[in-house]
Amino acid sequence: MHEKTLAGLSQALHSKAISSVELTEHYLKRIDQFDGALNSYITVTPELALEQARAADARLAAGNATPLTGIPLAHKDLFCTQGIRTSCGSKMLDNFIAPYESTVTARLLDAGTVTLGKTNMDEFAMGSSNESSFYGAVRNPWNSDHVPGGSSGGSAAAVAARLCAAATGTDTGGSIRQPAGYTALTGLKPTYGRISRWGMIAYASSLDQAGPMARTAEDCALLLQAMAGFDERDSSSVDEPVPDYSAQLNQPLTGLRIGLPKEYFASGLDTATADAIAAAVKQFQSLGAEIKEISLPNAELAIPAYYIIAPAEASSNLSRFDGVRFGYRCENPTDLTDLYKRTRAEGFGDEVKRRIMVGAYALSAGYYDAYYLQAQKVRRLIKNDFMAAYEQVDVILCPTSPTPAFRIGEKIDDPVSLYLTDIYTITANLAGVPGIALPAGFAGDLPIGMQLLGPYFSEPRLLNIAHQYQQNTDWHTRTPGGF
Ligand SMILES: NC(=O)C[C@H](N)C(=O)O
What we know:
globular, 15 helices, ATP binding, Amidase, EC 6.3.5.7, glutaminyl-tRNA synthase (glutamine-hydrolyzing) activity, Glutamyl-tRNA(Gln) amidotransferase subunit A
């Protein structure tokens, strides 16, 4: 059963070839069998999943099902799920049972999906390898010595190992696209504001965006359909009609103008990755696309700007974890200051502390103008680069990361080298534009990802282009050995 894509499972459920209870039991068995070694789930919710599966079967029988009814999903442990632990990968929230449901998970539940559990992630989504999780590193199903990427590394590993039909992720600087690239999945970061952030534990609010992680673009279209839409509870949610994301998947690509940003093919790009992207370019040409070289001249400033803006917002957002209202609280505090200090010192891991310190420094009097304000100006320049590029081309094609997945532990002592793995993904978050990652080849047993970026609200076009590529290639059909 798990060989099928989400779209294939949906058909099987609707034709009654399988039931949601059978499918859910099948995935729960696989989680039991394989997840000890992978560590992709923080929490598994078997009773709830089976109860939801029974309800889904009743809905399928009654004839009022959606394409997602009965589909077993996993959610990044950053989405609040009512009555279920929502840890955000941190000791700080290890004891936190969310009292309410995030808009994303609520919409997916309304569509009839089944929640298998909550997936592992970098602590508070700060990381690119899933090694900063309080619950331990996640292994890449393609090669267990390697990271699955991050911060949505548990979601990526769980989908790649077929321990769920698809999963949710979030992307602040690449956290959907980079792990999708490292595990041969298709992952979509929509336009900022397309999906509600309500009930997502905030990291950097002006950058955070949820999205689907699945096997194919077709599956991402089905998931985005349920996830997208205006939500008055999120002030950054955009009141823009939600198109039918599956309707345009089969449009031909004739005349499509694809831009290759020359800054993304410069030094630091691994040769196997460069070769895979060159082959994808040829594939797109054979499907009728025109290729142009373009420039994103300020791209090299993206990492420094991001590592001011994201920590600045994080230092503010994470001030709510103080041991008073919810989450971890230190033992026997002597007074309120001691409570704050020890709760935060004991509850947060090293990377989170590093970012809070950097952020607080960048926002402090005397440094605000020199760092934070400068970074915001750079952010505008990066946005302007994209706007100028989209006057010449319809979409931009580039790698998702400079290299395939690295080894567990390889970059753990060098945060800056870890930050550099997001060099191709961060620009889209700073500009707020959408991007889709999809598999484009392999270097040995490790997947290579490519990325398509488009103008605001171009998700239908990105899904269409990715789908056409997947109709003509088979990278996305491969399964990691042993799963
Ligand atoms: N959350 C993300 O998108 C991941 C990014 N690598 C970060 O640590 O900020």
